[in-house]
Amino acid sequence: MSEVYAVRRTRVRERCNAGGSAAALVSRPANVRYLAGTAPEGAVLLLGRTEDVLVCAGPPDDRSPQARPDEALRVHVVPGTGGDAAVAAAGLAAAQGVDSLAVEEHHLTVARHRALRSVAPRLRLAGLGCAVEQLRVVKDEEEISCLRIGAEIADQALGELLESILVGRTERHLALELERRLVDHGADGPAFPTSVATGPNAGRPGHRPTDRRVEEGDFLSVCLGATYRGYRCEIGRTFVIGTSPADWQIELYDLVFSAQRAGRESLVPGAACRDVDRAARQVLDSAGYADALPVLTGHGVGLEIDEDPRLTPAAMGKLDACVPVTVEPGVHLPGRGGVRIDDTLVVRPEADGGPELLTITTKELLAL
User: Fold this and answer.
1) What is the pTM of this model?
2) Which of 94, 194, 336, 337 is least enclosed, having the fewest CB within 10 Å?
3) Which residues lie below 8 Å from residue 17, measured CB to CB, with a gap of 6+?
């Protein structure tokens, strides 16, 4: 991986130099990890004039090879305790004779920005923009492999839960059990707080589990994700508890399933992001559910669970190959519940078989 990290840093440096800066300070944690490998909390990366340095508030944990930063980087540990790695990195840049340092202004606080100026008053601070985030959009096959393994773990955890007794258990208990199963199967941890929603809560985006107990006839919607080697994926499914689904539940489920399929089938290289959203949204809109729809149909995933691109009505840009995204339409009816179906897929050209589905738990409306 050392060569991969070096290539990534070179690409950022080229963008930095094109903007007139000889060095860059990367402080956003996901961006540091992308360019340097695993790094301690609070670490920053200096892409310097003479060398690249990982600046840490404390020494990296070298007990596991997977927890070590790129071995090609020099590691500088800030002396003492409570030191700010970003401030120390600015001092190192000034010592290298750099006169302009590009920083991630969207991540630095005002106080931290002032601290950088105070330690190196002759250093001109320029904006790096979202250069690293833009590079992170298209994944290499190693990154996709991590997402694929994370998806397999999430599928396993969900599949085991579906084989257990659910009636009478609380949303909160089921969410905690799912997160435990993720770790048992090899995940670093959950990719985000697990959502379990029953009855009138089902289908509500971002629902936080409560002490409501599962009852027969409920819709049960589950949204969970696994983190594997830093990469995050997600899956969402909806089921009916303990009895055959009612006619209205079948009708609503089939509609959301059709919308999700339309979105998945639109994932081709060159497709406009807003067109993917439109493909899924118009299925639900035409059935009269315009007011019950979420604000987006999907989003990118990777080192963060919510990355570019965004699949929304106002989204700009087009999809590239090897971009992992979610497709997660849903409908929530206040007081009744709803349906959400969520998959993680990788955009692939038709010659390679079209979009690659990473989350494979059945989308059949099961009565559990």
Assistant:
1) 0.94
2) 336
3) none
Q: 71 φ, ψ to 5°?
A: -65, -15
Tokens of 31: 């961006």
> What span, in angstroms and rounded, lies between the C-alpha atoms of 176 and 153?
16
Instruction: Name the helix (H) or strand (E) containing 102.
Output: strand 100-103
Band of residue 64 on the pLDDT scale cut at 50, 70, 90: low
Write out 117-146 in H/E/C secondary structure: HHHCCCCEEEECCCHHHHHHCCCCHHHHHH
CB 275 within 8 A of CB 309: no
Torsion of CA 225, 228, 233, 236, to 10 degrees: -30
What pairing do the DSSP bridges indicate for beta strands 343-346 and 356-357?
antiparallel
Hey, what are 351's tokens? 């010659």
Q: Could you please report the per-residue DSSP string of 348-362?
A: --GGGTSSEE---S-
> Residue 201 carries which DSSP code?
G
* Whether residue 174 has pLDDT greater than 60: yes
